[in-house]
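hey so u asked for the seq, here:
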Amino acid sequence: MKKIPYSMAVLVLGSLASFASAQPVVGVLYPEMNLKLAMADNGVIRQVHVKSGSLVKAMDPLVTLDSTMQTLEMTRNKLIWLDTKEQQSLVARRVILAKKYAVAQALYQESRSISLDELDGLQLQLIDLDGQIAQLTEREEREQLEYEISAQRVKDRVLRAPVAGIVTQVVQHQGEWAPVGEPIIGLVDVTELFVKLNIRDVLARNLTLGAELPVTIENLPIQQGFIDYIAPIADAASGLVEIKIKLNNPDGVMRPGVRVSVELVGR
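ran it, structure tokens below
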């Protein structure tokens, strides 16, 4: 049998070790948040505040629905809630009646110049007034809730950006009917991206969460990503394991949707 020279054996083993430790895999860059936003209520669009490509901050208005009826209802509920004249009148009556009851009670105890039936009658009136005041207090709390609900409905007529990002799509425009739950604005946050890969189990076993990996993107310097997710189970059909590599993109130079190459360096 012909022997392989020692130097050649070392070279072959070194190549195999290098191949096992770094495996380039091609994947696609995705945004961490790619949102399809919808209204919380039906209505006619009064104003669209953005267009495709607009940069928005969190809580910036995107779309406003007509809210004429909702605003009137909120104003009416507020007036009803703040109208406390009836309660003030009952409280004033109770103060007067309580004084009369105290005087009558003193007269009854000292001289019996007032009958027990009259004293009991005054006490019953006090109990009745207390019940009416309690009912009005409960009614006032319900009126406050109705006002707060109507105020929230007015707020729901404005669609706001839940996060800062770039508007990618505007489906409907001023004057159109916006149905509840139907996406009308696309919003993407490109400051955090990820690459999703499906790799062989033998490669996945050499990776750990948080490990840094070099990501190659055409016409850009090599970026450093870190492993954010390793699937606990492999796909039954293919036997592949899903992993996600996260990349920070604060300046937005990396564009979601492009193909990238990742060097899977083992631990």
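The domain at 23-66+166-265 is CATH 2.40.30.170 (Elongation Factor Tu (Ef-tu); domain 3). Residues 6-20 have pLDDT under 50 and may be disordered.
lmk if thats what u needed
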